[in-house]
Amino acid sequence: MNMLTLLENIRQLRLHKNFKQEYMAEQLGISTATYSKIENGKIKLSTERLHRIAATLGLASTPLTIAQLNTYQNGSNQSEISNLKHQITKLEHERTQAIEREKSLLAYIRVLETTAP
């Protein structure tokens, strides 16, 4: 995805949330004119500023942030939803495995405690 598409997605998400450029600029500590230039691709968007914009738009500041902004299209987030569901399933599986490991370790501790002199 190119930068102009990313910036358009930021603009679309901002509009979807009914945020004005003035609000975004205030949250970022910059002028409205500077924010406008960011959305229009006239100023280079740093990773730090991208994360601050994402946070202002209510997106978590995680590695998913850029993916969330890249896939946002006027409320049509099917690929993002599918990706997030896959990640949730994977995390649930890892959680289940961790719980099983914890149970095994606790059982082993009980065995060690009962056999200790």
From TrEMBL:
Residues 10-64 form the HTH cro/C1-type domain. CDD domains: HTH_XRE (cd00093). Keywords: DNA-binding. It comes from the Bacteria. Gene3D superfamilies: lambda repressor-like DNA-binding domains. GO terms for molecular function: DNA binding. This is HTH cro/C1-type domain-containing protein. It comes from Spirosoma montaniterrae.
